[in-house]
# Entry
Amino acid sequence: MTITKEIATKDLLKLPVGDKLNNLMTIKVQEDLLAGQFSIMESKILAKTMVAPHYHEHQAQVVYVTSGELEVEVGGENGTRFTAPAGSYITLPRQIYHCFWNATNEVSTYIAITGGCGFEEYIDDINDGYLSPKPTQLGIKEAKDIHKIFFDVERIPGMLKKYGLKGLHGMPPGYKSENYSTFEDGEVQSKINLSFLFTKLIKICTSLTPKLL
# Structure
């Protein structure tokens, strides 16, 4: 049996944007277009920043490093560590602590394929949270209770100090710590937020244009 359905080109074709990512973590293909089984995210991780130790209760991931390199830890503090250069595939099983960081002085980029539904909602909440006047709507507790993503926050200060890192990547906007500074609170994230907001405004104006005409 052949099923026909009209699908918008924008949902089927995602053109390259080069260095013009609107945010550090952007869902490129939504899970509802992939039978609800997985989503695809494009991301760039700034120099000397880290994806904090965490695990997903429901999702497994494959990370493909598109540029730069990442230092990776899988299995917690006593787990496996390795360097993943550009072109590498990294498997991150569900329910196992993992983290990775950019130890270089340049931006690294990667694509994350996440199996299991729900991850894109977490990314949407992060991006929307940083745009709110008081970015506290999503914290560590909400990440755990709502999205079933569990962070090992006790290890964060020590890891940042040990590996000479300056901030975090992909943390809930409500997360705060006095032990270190994160780029989410600084100038870089503010610029990214403004770019993300500007892009949203353009989309809204574009959608309204036909109605006004």
